[in-house]
Each structure stands twice: as C-alpha cells, then as structure tokens.
Amino acid sequence: MSRAYRIRVGASVTRVIRGEDHVSCQLEVLEILPKEAMAELLAQELLNDGFEREEDLLVRSEDNITIEVDARTAVVTVRVEQSEEVTLESVRDGFVYDEQLEEKERHEQSLEKQLKQDLNSDIDKEEQKLTQEATNELERHLGDIKGQLDQAVNRATAAALKQKAKQLGQIKEMTEDAETGSLTIVVEV
Predict the structure, then answer these.
(1) Cβ(27)–Cβ(94) under 8 Å?
(2) Residues sharing a CB contact under 8 Å with residue 17, sequence separation 6 or more, in sequence order
(3) How is the chain split into domains, by residue range?
(4) Buried (b) or exposed (e) across 53-73, using 16+ Cβ within 10 A?
(5) pLDDT tens for residues 55-109?
(6) The model's pTM
(7) Region class of 181: left (phi > 0), else alpha (psi between -120 and 50), else beta
(8) Residue 153's pLDDT is what?
(9) What is the C-alpha separation between 82 and 136, in angstroms, rounded?
(10) Do residues 74 and 157 touch, judged by C-beta distance below 8 A?
C-alpha cells in the first residue's frame, strides 16, 4: 500500500491596479465672431470657472475626475481614474504517492504555475471591477459637468453677441436675465 504525501503551495500577490474610463464630446459653440475669438471667449469663461491652461488645453481636476477642454476645437474629454493596492493570497494542495516521490518537485512547480494563473485571473477580475466603478462614477458626474460646460458656452455666446452688437452699431438697450440666460439687445444701425 502506498502512502500519500500532501504538497502545499502558497503565494500572495500585491499590486496596484487601475481602473479608468473616459468620454469625449463636442461643445456646440456658435460662430458669432471668428473662430479664434470664440475660442478665446470660451477659454476665458472656463478660466473663470476654475480651469487652468495646460499647453493647448484647459484642464480642471476634482478628486479623480479630470475635465479637458480644447477651446479651439470645442472638444471636451472627461476622464475618471481610480487606483488601489490589492493583496491576494491563495493556497493550492496536491498529493504525491510513494512511487511518485522523485517527481515531487515537478508536481510542486505545476501547482505553483496553476496558483500564479489563478492569482493573475483574480487580479484581472479586481481590475475589471475597479474599471466598472470608474464608469459608474463617470456616469454620476456627467450631468453636472455638462451643465457647467453649457453655462460657460452660454456666457461666451452672450459676450460674443455683445461684441457683435457693438460692431453693428450703437447699443440702445440691453437686458439680460441671468436666471433664464436670455439676452435682448436693441441696436441702432
């Protein structure tokens, strides 16, 4: 009768995993003034809203959300990035019998290989969960961000209309309702 010997292999993995998602869209900016002037008015409004210039982009970061606006093309990219350190541990057991003792090392290596594959698979699953969390957070914030950007575009459009009215003639009357965003300009040409 042969005896069985238990082989136990354990491992732990610690990694920093990242999950991210982003969405890009085009702002609707009316060309009331030349494109460059409209871009500068939009940029100024975004700077007033807490954005900072980084090369050709206007960028604002809040927690793990980054908003990038290219005022020249009116393209907006909203990005969410999350990261966390994950530690996973696992143990694999196997058996060898008296007649297989000389192959014990090969069995241990086989168990270690399976264990590493399982841990890598588990890390991938954790990364997918973190990416899904990033997507959910992005969806939660998109409405607010869209509203803020729309307000900046509306203010830039109002500033452009005022400049255009001055170019056309003498402004006789101007009423602006900040609550509704309406603007009425009476110009004498």
Answers:
(1) no
(2) 83, 84, 85, 86, 123, 126, 127, 130
(3) 4-188
(4) eeeebbebeeeebebbbbbee
(5) 889 999 988 999 999 999 999 999 999 999 999 998 888 877 766 667 778 888 8
(6) 0.76
(7) left
(8) 93
(9) 12
(10) no
